[in-house]
Amino acid sequence: MDTPEITPETLPPVPSTGGFGPLRVALFRDRWIASTISSVGTWMQDTAGTWLMTSLTSSPLLIALMQTAASLPVLFLGLLAGATADVFDRRKLLIFWQVWMLVSVAVLAILTFFGYISPWTLLALTFLLNIGSAMNNPAWQAIVPELIPRELIADAVSLNSASNNLARAVGPALGGLMVATFKKTGPGAGSVFFLNAISFAGVIWVLVNWKRVPLFKSTLPAERIAGSMRSGLRYIRYAPELQASLLRAFVFTFFVSAVWSLLALVAQRDLHQGAMGYGILNGSMGLGALLAASVLHRLRSRFSADTIIAASTVVYIVTLVILAFIKMPAIIIVTLIVAGFAWTSTMATLNTSVQLSVPAWVQARVLGTYLMTFQGGLAIGSIIWGAVAERTSTSTALLSAAAGLLISFPIAQRFHVMRGKTPDFTPYQWKRPAPQYVLDSEPSAGPVRISILYRVPVEHYPDFTRAIHAMRGVRLRDGAMRWGIFRDANDPESLNETFVTESWLDYLRSRERMTAADAEIRQSVLALTRSDTPPVTTHQIYAKEITDPSSSS
Hints:
Pfam families: MFS_3
GO cellular component, one term: plasma membrane
GO molecular function, one term: transmembrane transporter activity
Largest sheet: 4 strands, antiparallel
Membrane topology: Multi-pass membrane protein
CATH architecture of the largest domain: Up-down Bundle
Number of domains: 2
Distance between the termini: 53 Å
Strand content: 5-15%
Shape: elongated
Main location: membrane
């Protein structure tokens, strides 16, 4: 007898368990455990790699570039990664990129063991490793709604943060300890790199055994990568709530990157600590982040997203100032624990806002853009603060970042996150079939103009215009290149909505992409028209000039 497919919709309701509900879903739990082990290896590598760089060079800029090498690939590849994850099978993509990362780290381990490592070789292989991470992460995050019910997504995001931050609490200390165990930094770092390579095997095993059932599967031909990227950017352009989350992520990470990129210098030069000391400082932030993940479920129920982000911003302004002036390890460790708490609170809040503000068809592209924005802030910030530290001092760079965060704070507060009711992004089930394409040209030909003629009572005109302009965002997010609403100069009751798509296929895709929330907006438009005169829709394809009469139909 065939075993029925398991999807989030077929799973039994999961009772509230203080934020740990997603772990009761076997698929998510296996993914979470494998990811946690891999993240421990990643954070061990981050500590060992950065400390290895301090043993290879004394340049603050080269040391800070380790953070840039980790973040820059996402800046360039985030949208491409999201587009590929929305077009191709996410499971196969994830397996490919996990293997890529395993091989990259294995090569780095071998070169380090045999002493063939230089600052630029270390940067290059770190960059290659993070190309894999950049291409992997949008698909990795986008599969969360495929594993659990939608109402548990916020808890799942917090648990994923807990996984990463549990690794951050343990990994740096383990990495620092392993490096310190060896007399020379090279063999210790090489051992860490080797263990990290092995850690990817568990994730690959989970993915190989996963029987994937996608939430959204188009019946139309797959988009091309370039078209998929354009449609993702178009969606973001006409989604103000999403833009607010992206802006807040960039501003926050740009200034806070000073902590991540300069912490090794603080440990080495200001506190006179070795690899183990640096690992403890890094692990202190991880411990705070882990504490945040355990209570964030309760914080979200009491405070708004804007309040959580504002409090975290204040914490980091204070943290940057303390790192600049205070040289006492005990005070810095306590400060970093609080900073780690604030980091996870903000990142989990912003990630959740992105996950819940987009439909399934564009989710990976938007997550890729979010990761691109997030890591772009880290990469660009790390370059700037590293350069400032090299030309002046570490304290000056930290104080400059604190001042920038303070000045930008009131401006960033104007862009609200997760305010109001969360839209219903369930795909809308059309009650009428899609229009048929009867021309002899290819369905990919275009552009196509869709014209909808409404009869609107004069007394409903003000309400209708407000409702139809809300429909503008729906059309443009779902695939329209242009949109307009026009009133007949000789017939005040006649209004004509027109929008243009690149092709007939893009028009059909825009119908597939309509959500329940979009349908509510559409229904509010129709409710203001004359019930005895339903809207008339026509579809026109661009008529290209035909110079050869024999080629015309």
